[in-house]
Each structure stands twice: as C-alpha cells, then as structure tokens.
Automatic annotation (TrEMBL):
InterPro entries: MoCofactor_Util/Proc (IPR052698), XdhC_CoxI (IPR003777), XdhC_Rossmann_dom (IPR027051). Residues 319-347 are annotated as: Disordered. Residues 14-77 form the XdhC- CoxI domain. It comes from the Bacteria. This is Putative xanthine dehydrogenase.
Amino acid sequence: MEMHGLVEVLFRTPHRAVLATVMEVEGHAYRKAGASMLLLENGSRYGSISPGCLESDLSDRVEGLLRSGGAEMVEYDMRPADDFSWGEAIGCGGMIRVLLEPVHGMLLHVLLEVKRRLDRGQEAGLLRSFVSSYTQAEYKLTEGEPNAAGDAAVLKMEDGVLRLVSSYTPRPRLLLFGASDDAVPVAELAQKSGFRVTVADWREGLCTSLRFPRASRVIGQPERIVERLQLTERDYVLIMSHHYPHDAKLLELLLPNQYKYVGVMGSISRTERLLGGRPAPDWLHYPVGLAIRAAGPEEIAISIAAQLIEVRRKSTEPRTEEWKGCESNGYLSRGRRGHKNGRFQAFHPPGRHWKIRRLRP
C-alpha cells in the first residue's frame, strides 16, 4: 500500500496513528526508500516495509511514541552474516533506517493536503527538515515528482540541515466498464494492486455497493460515462460489459484520444469488429490479460491484473543497461541481479548514500 491508500485510512479511522517511512536503504531490502506504513494505536497495521519481520518491533514502539509525541529513527542492520536477531525470515543482508512519526499537529495538516492532491490525481510531496535530531521536524507540502514510478524519498544535507524529500504518486484510475459477475474479481484484484477503480454500467441492479464495495460507481450509457469521468492519457480502461452495442460505442468514444491502457474482453475477431476497420492504437490490448492459459473468472482476473501492473511498470522502466547494477524498483525477473538465496528484492547499490549517513543529526 502506497501513501495514497494510507492517507485514506488515516482520515477515516478514529484511532491515533504513527507513520513509518523508510528513510534509507543499503544493500538488499524488501522495500525501497520512501515506502511507508501506518501503525494504529489499536494494533492495526496498513502497508508494509518488510516481509513481516520488522512490523512487530515497530508496533511495540507505537504506545511510547504516541505518549511522548516525538518522532524516532530506528535502524535495522541485517548485514552481518551471523546476526540472527531479526529471525531467519530477514536474510536480505541489508540495512534499513525507518522514521516513526506520531501523526498530529502540522504533520496531520500536511498529510490532509497530500490526500487532497492525490485524490485529484496530482503528485504531492512532503519536505521534512530535521531541527532536533530525528525527534522534531518542520513540514512543508511540495509539488512532488511528475511522472514518478511510485512513492520515493531522498535524504540529503542542504545548508547544514538534514532534509528528507518524499514524493507521492496518485493511484492510477481504472475504469471498469461492465458490472457483470466476472468484473467482481477484477475490481478486487485491481484495488489490491494499487488502482482506484470506478465501475460503470447502465444496469443499476449490477452496479451496486454490495457487489463493488470499495469502488466508485457510475450509472449510465457510454456517452454519459465518458463525459462525467473526463478520462485522460493517464487512465486505464477495461471494456467488459459483454454487450456488443455498448462496447462498440465506448470504444468509438475512446479512439480519438490517448490513454495509458485500454483492454477489451473477448476474442480478437470480436474486437476487430468493434474497431470497424479503424487501426488499433498502441494503447489498445486485446484479448485482454497476459497469456497464462487462464480459465474461469478468477484466473482471468489474475491475468488482467498482471497486465495492468506490467503496463504501469513499463511506463517507468529503466534502460536495459541500468538493470545490471540496480534493483531499486523491485523488479522480479528479466536477468536482474537476484538475492543470493534466489529471491529478488529491492536493492540499492552500497555507498549510494554513504555521505548522508555520516551527516545524520
């Protein structure tokens, strides 16, 4: 879960919370710098910064942090080969520094503004300037990084002040046109994969909160849906109403513009008939989903979700020559360097932030 999902949780829960942010990583680690999670006073946790081996220790600190009101930096160093203090599940041979901040006062105010920007589909940033070790910081809302691959953070020294510059990206919007039964697992998996899902259909009895509890919903014909949602080149669309005239009309309305992804459920011949002799743009995918020989609604939903993730990641994929020295983006295949035990994990080249570590307050 990235920041967009965390702030949604933050502003709907009645419980006090502590925000955990990965400030710095050296060597192999499960998440890269900028990853965050939310720890609530009732013991609930949202998001993750490890495979599950650090979260319990972080949770044990929540009560004291909420009582003191001050922040804390915690360092987990798993580099020594004979260090088993964090259990056999760690085994990633890296070092991770985590900033723990009770969410109140100015931080709460800035995170509300971050949420508003992300909800509008805009990037957002948060600048922390540490004024007293890591226990106190000044907070400032910034614009964020346009077209960033995801949440990220950079720790740097400026004018004698240590600053953590965080950037957050909005969850991409997915329009799911068609609320039939096979759309239910697609919506669920897409939401779990970090998409903001909007389900649209002209049939009120199908497009309900009971069937799609976490998605926004639009009732209407294709013309009204397109007009209301104001789709952009950053949006994803799935056409799967299984109603030929409605699918054809929506595709006709989409073709003049540019999108990140449009997938059409059905055979190649059906989609070509929907196109009506018009050329297929690069962003049009049919048949929808990755070719994994999927059978049944659940497996097809998995293949679709995998394709959505693939397209999302490809838009920010580093050049081929960059793969050999960096796994910072958490890619899991294609010849990048893997962990010595065979697992692929986020990797930051040793020494990348060496000077920053020596300049800690």
